[in-house]
Amino acid sequence: MSEQPPAPEPAHTPAPTSAAAPVSVPVPVPVPEIDPATDTFVAHRNLLFTVAYEMLGSAADAEDVLQETWLRWVKVDLAEVRDQRAYLVRITTRQSLNRLRTMSRRKEAYVGQWLPEPLLTTPDVAEDVELAESVSMALMLVLETLSPTERAVFVLREVFDTGYDEIAAAVDKTPATVRQIASRARRHVDARRPRQTVSAAESRAVLESFQRVLETGDPRTLLDVLAPDVVMVNDGGGIKQAALRPINGAEKVARFLVGALGKNKSLVTVAPTVVNGGTALAVHLDGVLDGIMAMRVENGLVTGLYYVRNPEKLTRAETETPLTLR
After folding, report:
1. Which class is domain 200-313?
2. For the residues of 254-281, what is the DSSP string, one character each?
3. Cα-flanking dihedrals φ and ψ of residue 282, to 5°?
4. Strand partners for 234
5. Which segment of 84-98, 187-201, 292-306 scores lowest on mean pLDDT?
């Protein structure tokens, strides 16, 4: 019997291969182009805010001025602007002058004394003697006695060292007129500004003594830290109770402070803080901020007390605001 041919081997079927995993190709994220106008404005924003605040004494109004400055800046052909920083300062100055005239009418209707809005400032402000003095409560109050144009000229020339030609363009006056205004404003301010520069260490020492006196409520000890001709100004804005007129003289100020502390039924605590580049006290009632008390110190004594209780002016008292002269 013939052999049977071997049975054919079954055809080899290759094992199915799994489908290749899709390769993830990163999609490039487009980097947004930085608008030159925005870039320049942001770079100088702190400077512009400082200019507006020193002219107005109000952070809220300074922010409004910056908004108006921005709206005008974005319409400018930057190719036509030789000095963008100076141009921005010019716009800010003009808008601040417009706002100053509006604010003067508001201040006429303001209840009681008007004080600048206190700003919690960064440590570098206190270290810069020139900047700290220019935004101090004492000097800001002196600036309130200038006309709007005098204030603009003084701030730009004396604080920011702006040239007369540039100031003239900002306030719409001739350079010769600006020189006269600057001289008049300087004499006015020099006659009323603090007579000497006080070191940070001396200010802290007086502040600590004053804080201890407030905590003990001893009127005799209080007289030891108050200058005989001290003046206290309170700002409640018609919202919080405050003396409607300045209080003059150490004995009257001491009686007022001790009386106010004695009448208060809340837990009063005071803590040191730094506002407008200078030493101050944050006053809390039952743990809630009631006001900021800034002070002017000369010859180791308190010559000026400025107590802001108006809650609308305390929005910047617990969050730092950067300021700069450059």
Report:
1. alpha beta
2. HHHHHHHHHH--S-EEEEEEEETTEEEE
3. -95, 120
4. 307
5. 187-201
Query: Which residue's structure tokens are 């007579």?
Result: 195
pLDDT at 267: 85
Q: What is the location of CATH 3.10.450.50 in the chain?
A: 200-313
Task: For 116-152, write each residue's pLDDT tens digit.
Answer: 999 999 888 988 988 999 999 999 999 999 999 999 9
* Residue 94 predicted with pLDDT over 50: yes
Q: 284-302: buried (b, 16+ CB within 10 Å) or exposed (e) per residue?
A: beeeeebbbbbbbbbeebb
Say what percent of the chain tops pLDDT 70: 89
Q: Say how many CA atoms lie within 13 Å of 302 toward its Cβ.
A: 32
- The mean pLDDT of 187-203, rounded to a whole number, is 83
Q: Which two tokens stand for residue 61?
A: 């109004």
CATH superfamily placement of domain 36-110+147-190: PhyR, sigma-like (SL) domain (1.20.140.160)
Distance, in Å, from the CA atom of 37 to the CA atom of 248, rounded to the nearest integer, reads 50
Angle subtended at Cα 67 by Cα 73 and Cα 92, rounded to the nearest 5 degrees: 60
